[in-house]
Design a protein that fits this description.
By secondary structure, the chain is α+β, with helices and mostly antiparallel strands. It has helices spanning about 25-40, 80-90, 110-115, 150-165, 175-180, 230-245, 260, and strands spanning about 50, 55-60, 65-70, 95-100, 120-130, 145, 190-195, 200-210, 215-220, 250-255, 265-280. The chain is globular.
Length: about 280
């Protein structure tokens, strides 16, 4: 048997078990979890994350990107509110990715953005999996999965994650700094995980337990270690951790790994609708 080290992770639960909630509510729970993920980067490297009743957005001018993650604008004066929002954004950056979700308001926001000439596109898939019945999964016998609890492990996570995503450690510095400040057990609902063979990290991921759902992020395996079941074993361990905390669902976003996650029991329930705004965009 592989050595599986576990942690006592706290969660913020919703009023009702998500297994009894409709699809839009499930998407909204993962969006709240997603916003919590981005909040980890606030005030680092000039990154600003703003969350209030009307909007949630991140301005990074680099990784992890500029995104509007939630819009809840008043029905009265909506055009003025959009103008004010874009004016504020333009003082900080030259472009942003505006995501539209089923619960965003006003209900005709899509048409309002199209009339302004924003370019549309389809973004990541949002996939979910129930946690009541997980298969009995045995990771490779030499594999050890453990939470990151100290700086040497975080540095190992950082190095392997950058390799898995095909980027440099310099480009991934913002992730290291975010988790150095908020991880390592300081926030019980945010945990990084590493899978090791001997002393070599072969797969990495991040688990966030908040808003009544388990959010899986940053799953990565360096190229030379793929095809050995390491990432699958890590995902199943994260799912087991989430279930042990009483959660009913896990969710994630992916752009190109739908089949892989389907093989682990995830189902696609939503695809991001994107709108792209740039400061030099002509007036409609």
């Amino acid at each position: 048997m592989a050595l599986i080290k576990t942690c006592n992770c706290g969660i913020l639960t919703s009023a009702l078990p998500l297994r009894h909630m409709k699809n839009s509510t499930l998407i909204e729970a993962l969006r709240s979890n997603y916003i919590e993920y981005f909040r980890l980067f606030h005030n680092q490297h000039g990154i600003q994350v703003h969350v209030d009743r009307e909007t949630a957005l991140i301005i990074a001018n680099g990784p992890p990107g500029n995104h509007i993650l939630r819009t809840n604008l008043p029905s009265a004066g909506t055009e003025e509110s959009i103008d004010a929002l874009l004016s504020r954004i333009s003082s900080q950056t030259g472009g942003i990715r505006w995501l539209l979700f089923p619960q965003d308001k006003p209900w005709d926001l899509r048409d309002r953005l199209k009339r302004r000439g924003l370019i549309t596109g389809q973004g990541d898939l949002w996939m979910f999996r129930q946690l009541q019945h997980l298969p009995k999964s045995s990771p490779p016998s030499s594999m050890c999965i453990s939470p990151v609890r100290d700086l040497p492990d975080l540095r190992a996570w950082w190095t392997a994650s950058a390799l898995g995503f095909g980027t440099s450690q310099r480009a991934a510095q913002r992730w290291y700094d975010a988790f150095r400040r908020h991880g390592l057990g300081r926030r019980s609902h945010v945990t990084n995980y590493i899978g090791k063979i001997d002393k070599t990290v072969v797969t990495t991921a991040t688990l966030i337990l908040t808003a009544g759902i388990a959010g899986i992020y940053d799953l990565s395996t360096p190229q030379q270690y793929r095809g050995n079941g390491f990432a699958s074993a890590l995902v199943y361990e994260l799912l087991a951790q989430a279930r042990s905390q009483g959660l009913a669902y896990a969710g994630l976003q992916t752009g190109d790994a739908e089949q892989f996650y389907q093989s682990l029991g995830f189902n696609t329930r939503f695809q991001e609708e994107e709108f792209f705004w740039s400061a030099d965009q002509p007036e409609s």
